[in-house]
Amino acid sequence: MVGTIRVFALCAVACATVSSSVHAQRLALKTVPIATGDQFFFVPTRGVGMGGLAAAIRDTLADPWSNPAAGGRLDGLTLFAAPTGYTISDDIGAGFTLAAGGLGRSGDWFGGITFAIQQLENPNANPFFFDVGQREGFIDDALGNDYVQLFAGRRLNDRTAIGASFYHAGLSAVEGVSQLYAGNAGLHQEGDLTDWRAGLTHELSNGSTLEAVVVHSRFNMLHEVRTIEWIFQTQMGRPTPMTSFEENLDRTRTTGFQVGWQTPLADTTATFGLALTANRKSHPKIPNYRVANIPRDPGNSTAFALSAGLSRQNGPSTVGMEVVWNPARSHTWAEAEAPTPVPGGGVIPTGGRTVENWFRFSNLAAITGYERDNGGFAFRFGIGATFYRYRLKQTRWVEQTTRRSRESWFEWSPAWGITARPQGLAIHYTGRLTAKGFPDIFGGRDFAIADSPGLGSGVDFLPAVTQPVRLDDFATWTHQLAITVPIGGKR
User: What global pTM score does this model have?
Assistant: First the structure.
């Protein structure tokens, strides 16, 4: 992005980039266009290579990680390894993830497990050539995260399956956070993300499929920010660094559900799909990001995603399209740390609201994709385009002022993939570029970021920006090479 903005809000729709037959159940909210990368993308996927199609296609290996009951469609056992890497332009960030696991079904029982270790580049490595009082382990050139997810379930009969899953991420870094502490001399993060979900799939007599998922997740992070103030002492004739530390908490609780329906059309070569997702989020603590210096920000959010998709198969070729409407509301506020007088008389008591922010989003996405699969070799490509629209109303009770803002912008994400199936295994490559506007791809300008595919990050960034902010343009390139080894069943 080039230029200055007064208020920039983004509600990233995970369902525009997820790879499951029903979309991601956690919808991530953002109010600043920061580069978050594809940190949470590491399972093999078909849909991402088709631009993010999901409502009217199935992704056998990826679906059970989103809806555990979809494991009832597995046939035999499949083992996989999937190295995934992403880079963000201008050295904003980069990451490499190595994931491995397996999933399968035996009789009526099915299950799976995946492990992943990840290294992220730390853009906050010590920029000084001398020690300025850093803590042990506070500044590092790379940061590590680890992930584990498992699911299990049972087919109740030939048409119905149920399942449950657990996901845990041990986090020493979340991509994008450092950009919200402008000018920091060091940032230490630690925390975790946990996710519990239960799912159901049911096949109707006419070939239609119903799916349902309920989910609850808890995101907890601690940010320790180091700042340096240079004090000029005339008697010494040179500046002296004065180091200070600030702690911020980031807490979000998300409860949501999703229902999906797929049905073959009359000619049986086309499939129509619908999916509805709803999230209710509470934010016990939003960090005091420097991009919006308002301390002690709690809040709550409600987000929905309604998607409709159509796919048609003609021999080895599959073509699909999808639209997604994403309305959402977010309400955050600041609380008085002490009794605060207001002009004209009156006092806001301790704990009273000094600032309130109301965001209303109404975003629209369109996705189209194509796949040709000849059995031994397949290729796919697609593109997703999203038009973001929002309104912001902010009331400052201390100053007794109200301001309103409307903004909109366009974002697109081309993707591609190939699959080769030599004897006994399958090799999949998936790539994606996420961009805002109509950028010069090779110049690396005018880029923005969308949410990660797979499980969906569920990480929210909700600072209320009310002053002009200039953020650099960036591009994110993601590449995944996955190897799957089927043992029994079909490949």
Answer: 0.81
